[in-house]
Amino acid sequence: MTAVDAPAGPGDSEDAPQRALRRRASLRTALVAVLLAALAAVLLIVAVTTHVSLRSQLDAQLDAELARTLARGPGPQPSGDLLAFLDAPGQGEYLLGAVLEDGTAVRGAWRDDDGDLEPLTAQDLARISAALEEEDGTRDVSLSIGRYRITEEDPVAGRGPGGGGAAELAVGIRTDSADLTIARLDLTLALVSLAALLVTGLAGSAIVRRTLRPLEQVASVAARVADMPLEQGSVALTERVDPELARAGTEVGEVGRALNALLENVDGALDARHRSEERMRRFIADASHELRTPLTAIRGYTELLRMTEPLGDRGAESLERMEAQSARMTALVEDLLLLARLDDGAPREQQRLDLAELLMEAAMDARVTAREHTWRLDLPDEPVEVLGDPRQLAQVLANLLSNARKHTPAGTTVQVRLRLHGREAVLEVADDGPGIDPSVQGDVFDRFTRADRARSGRDGTTGLGLPIVRAIVVSHGGDIALDSRPGSTVFTVRLPLAPPAV
């Protein structure tokens, strides 16, 4: 059966400030992300609007240039060749012309950068024909010689070969300059947008961090208070939000004022609880001290009565019951006195002792008193030395074994294991009994808690055995944990080992 680790308690929350920091970082990130997203949306709208506007303007300029080319160029040519206008004086380079018959480009030419006319390839003619069929007006076509904006002239009679028939003429100009302008614009807009986002991100992060700094200080106060052990003892709750931050009128100030008011209330409640605990401890200690004398007298008188007076059967039975109840009451008073001393932090004896030896003696006593149980002992070969009070640690072992005996039926197997884990001694007391009711497990270490309704107990109990065990273990710098389910109940005690002998 494996050991059970102690559950995390309030003192195990050392990473709470880191969790709070991650939450604050997430808030800053969210605010900066929202700011950057809004700016990115605005920049995108501006960029798209600028791109579309300039593209439309450049397309309009290209269309105007095409119109001027048609107006001054393609007229009746002396040679009868419709493409002769390409070689006319004043025509720009990269000008393109194509002759269409029945909507199909049959031939064409273009001016290269040297001003020479070059024929269009059949592939380029096919692309021009396809583009003219799909759209009306001007259209953009990607050719092997570059990207062109093309328009066509209406059919004119007498412009076919030899002056007869009808033919159409398509004229195009290269769009490289406009495309380059658009590309440069897009690149400029992208770089400016990235620079704006970067600067805004850095500046926004600094502004948000500065703005949230008061809130971080408030959260830091709350985190430090959350890490304080408030469950018992005297607690000085001195943490407060700086009055400069707890001024009314701002959201952070209202939070700071509310937190300070809450801390004042908690501080008062903790002080009242501590005073109440102190009064209860004094009452228990005083009452226990006062009860020891009459209980001792009762036991003495019952023994004297037994020795000096003749008793009948009923008288002897009544006397035995008085002796049993006085012994039980004496044990209860002694337990209460021990808890009161442990609560007060009374100094205890410090001795270097072998926990394995104490456990062996306790197990031998348990075998004698509970022969109907099966006892198994698993101890390491080497000594397990701890620093502590031998009487108190012996009581821890006796209480744990007595608890397993009292609350399990005959035939139950109780396994007692002791092992070393790092610089700790780990003691496990496990049984295969019916287990502890889950509704009781969280309270088994509280005083006067009884698990009799969940386990088949036969002996009277006071409900102080396990609280005493926990108080002694904690006073020795250790801890105790419980893991219970039907067929398996394990109490795990961890104690620090004694430092190596010099």
UniProtKB/TrEMBL annotation:
Its main location: membrane. It catalyses: ATP + protein L-histidine = ADP + protein N-phospho-L-histidine. It holds the Pfam family HATPase_c. Keywords: Kinase, Membrane, Phosphoprotein, Transferase, Transmembrane, Transmembrane helix, Two-component regulatory system. GO terms for molecular function: calcium ion binding; phosphorelay sensor kinase activity. SUPFAM superfamilies: ATPase domain of HSP90 chaperone/DNA topoisomerase II/histidine kinase, Homodimeric domain of signal transducing histidine kinase. It is an enzyme of class 2 (transferase). The chain crosses the membrane at residues 29-48. Residues 209-271 form the HAMP domain. Signal peptide: none annotated. Gene3D superfamilies: 1.10.287.130, 6.10.340.10, Histidine kinase-like ATPase, C-terminal domain. Residues 286-499 form the Histidine kinase domain. The keyword Cytoplasm does not apply. GO terms for cellular component: plasma membrane. Its EC number is 2.7.13.3. It is found in: Cell membrane. Its cofactor is a divalent metal cation. Residues 1-20 are annotated as: Disordered. PROSITE patterns: HAMP, HIS_KIN. PANTHER family: SENSOR HISTIDINE KINASE TRCS, SENSOR HISTIDINE KINASE YKOH. This is histidine kinase. It comes from Brachybacterium phenoliresistens. The lineage of its organism: Bacteria, Bacillati, Actinomycetota, Actinomycetes, Micrococcales.
